[in-house]
Design goal:
about 850 residues; 5 domains; Alpha-Beta Plaits; alpha+beta
Amino acid sequence: MTKNNEYLLDVPCRLLSTNQVVVSYKATSLYPESQWQKVYNLNKAALTMSAESKERLARLGNIVKKLFPKVMQKILKECISPRGLQVKYQLNNIPTDFTDSEISLMEKLPNLNNFTTELCFKLLRFENLLHEPSCKWGNVPHDTEIEIGDDIQRILNATNDVISRKSDEISQLYYEEFQKRTQEVLKRVDNYLCQDISIQLYQTIQNSDIDITDMLQQLALMQQVNVIQTVDEDSENIERYSRVSRVIIDTFPNIFRDIIRSNISAKNVYQMCLSHLNSFSSDQQAVLNGANSSNSYDSMDITLIYKLLRQLSLISPPTNGWGNRPEIADMKLADDVERIRRYRNNLAHRCNTNIGTDEFDDYFDKFRDIGCRMDLNFFNKTNYERLIKLHKTCSMDKHMQTKYMNALKHLENIKLQFENKPIKFFWGESFNQSLMNLRSILKEESSEEEKRKVRVQIIFQHEEEVETTIDILNSLRDEINKDLSGIEFIVATKGSIVLHVEILIILLETDQLLQSTLILFLRRILERITTVNTESIDMVLIPVQEFTQWNAPTTIGGPVYLEFDFEAELFKTNDKMEEQFRHISDAIIIHSNGGGKNNNITATVLPICLEIEEAYSQSLISEENTRKAEESFTQAQTPVKYNLPIFVTLRKQLNITKSSNEKLYIFSCIKTGNTLVFTDYMNKRLIICNSDGTDIDHIPLSYGPWDIKEIDSNTVAVSLVTAQGISYNDNNLYVVIGMSIIHVMDLTGKVIRTIPAPTNLINDITVDRDRLICIDYKSIYCCSLDGKLMWRFKMDEFQDLTCVTTDDEGNVYVTHHNTHTVKVVSDDGKHHKELLTESDGLDKAVWNLL
């Protein structure tokens, strides 16, 4: 005993059983005898807590051991029949490696009752039986990601988490949260399986007794599920290349087909091309013939459709013109057509399949943007953005990867043609074809032809310091070209680095001449680039296709009406009239490109419409008609509607605030009283604010709203998804369904009658008094309320019409989505003028008019 009767606890405790503790001590120092019991109680509480944690861990282990494998087995059976799986295994046709224990289980197929969680996962994943989770395998899904792949990943994560934890880490809070999340997953799995078996199994296991010690021992022997697939870098590059290829091979051609299909039929395209068939290759001519027979674009590829869109002027040209690289801010339909063509060519001209992660993500970000804009162009009747997202993450087996990789490579069939270290020269079918054509010209044409130059692009497949290298080369253009003969460097552009050069045709006459010319030129280029690793450099050569605008067809299928303004004096005598008509006929023949030669042209002169100015009319009108002339003059001074005395003034600009991750797609708007209501399609809601932009509120909707019309001060009608236009008049709703049907409904949604549509591609409608005004991409139609066409307004400049409305005078206003303009047409459809343009600050994001 010490002086103060203090004792030191030497050995804290040793567990005999759940409630038994042995404490050994010796009297040395520190603790008085009165504290022995306190120390004993503390240790006993700690042991009790440890026992509870072990029980919680054991129960979670029971879920991992008995529940999760059964759930995974059910999912596997849902995705593939056990007997079908057995056949694939026997044929050694499953692209994954199995452990010895897994092989023994696979040998027992079609019985898979003992399959482990990991074995089920392997089969589901590598047999491509389900979509990859949004977060990709091996990561943690976001709470909003609830597809079956996401929940399988949650099961794998939960399994590995329980196996890796110690009992003292299993708090009551952790235990309860684990159980809650497990039940949420199982409910979604049951929904996927269309039965309640997972939840029932969970309840059975939860209510069963367990041997805690035995379960903990089993848990200690369990291995974590290996979720991450071990692949080499080359395999990953090939997979990324294949996924990008799938967009180029499958999705982009379909986008092009939708674009041309929405403008003209395949038969009409063929008729327009008849006089220019020699400008197409033999393969393209065969495709055009097939398209004419089937009246379908299904066999046309990107190259041919691009040529047709451009040569036939089927869509408005890109912002920077055809053949040029669009800027980031360029968002016209043709800008995306140009982007797709360039992506197709850039990828088809690659001489390797190495696509890194950053490049891959950048491609798909840009592909998704194009898909989104195309969905909007086609009024969300397409799903291109969603499809492109699936291409990025969907399962792809080795066969599928090889298929798309080869398909993209075969577009140009780029091959190594010759090598002069460190440079390797590649080119494909298009360059070979150009060489053959040029060499045949050299054989047949005169020596003057040899002085002609052709433009060639040399793609410098180099990924480092691209912008710096381009700047250096362009700044040294004159130095590079100095003393060069027959080849001239024009400019370097991106993608990776593209050298534009002009080569004399004579230097393409033989392979030896071509090779020596290229080697001399490129060595001069490399001497001036210090940022390039010159151990191995790949160069791909492609021809620059020159587009010449076709002449207008020379055959005319109907009468042509020509209107002229003549000075009245020229009709004073027959001789003067005949002289003017001769001038007109000569001008027509000169500018008809031979269309008027060897043909008889018949012209009919229609009655004259006099436009008389005041001063001149007084000199021509006789005294007895003076009074009538004065009356006519007085009426002429009165403003008339076709002068369209309409102007607009910007009163206020509203900036609708949004969060950083939001994209606003406002398709329509109305003003009711002092309130503005906007349809926000992408975020599935209405945006409501005061006319000064304050007090912004939202009304969530089940689907994306398209159009909106006011019913009264407290009620609006909104069209969702399939309704492309909506209008309200005299207690009836006029609704466009599927862009081709106009239903008249009461306010309960009951269809009263159907109005025949004047076009099968209605973009928008409005009802004005007793008139129905509707538009397609190029025309305005004015009809009676029974569908009878009263007038149609169409001009070449009217393209991409999006929305329509009217004013109290009956004037018709239309928005042009891609040209950023608003135009107004008189109520009789005879006169029009441009009201707002891009210079007024109008942007295509403004789709609708109040």
